[in-house]
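Render this sequence as a predicted structure.
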Amino acid sequence: MRRLEFWYDFASTYSYLAATRIEALAAAGSVEVIWRPFLLGPIFRAQGWETSPFKLYPAKGRYMIRDVTRRAAARGKDFHMPLHWPASSVKAARMALVGANEGWIAAFTREVFEAEFEAGRDIADDAALGDVCGRLGLDFARLSSLVAGGDIKSALKAQTGRAQSLGIFGAPSFVAEDGEVFWGDDRLEQALAWPRAL
């Protein structure tokens, strides 16, 4: 079975769109999805940006909201831009890394994205993440303690560094086994078909 790495930041609207459909499309193409949460902040800062380009360029931001709303509706989703955006995605990303080790990363990722971009919740708020954990039967207190430790902090920093080394500059990005990088929800099908798309 071929493998495809799915690189995403929980603050990314287009990552949300990809997360809603990647599993079904991957299963249909006999592709295993490897979930790779990372942080866009350090990558943006390396490009001279202090925040999302959708914040830096208001016209682009307004278009993004309309575009994601249209795409989500076409997929039967009710998109709501949260008031606090881009939210700090650090704690959610650290928890997802624990989930990668314990086997619940995919479900956790979907739930966080739904809380943020369908319910409009602030994922930097412990109440939002606590509710996500509750729905999945996860111990929020245990996870909060784990992600405060140095091991998970270092793991997320290393994961973000690896994203940079792969040439990733935005999210979502998909990396095929041969290192080919595809950027954007609208490149998901092409990424899943690679290298047969040649």
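Summary. The radius of gyration is 16 Å. The CA atoms of residues 107 and 128 lie 15 Å apart.
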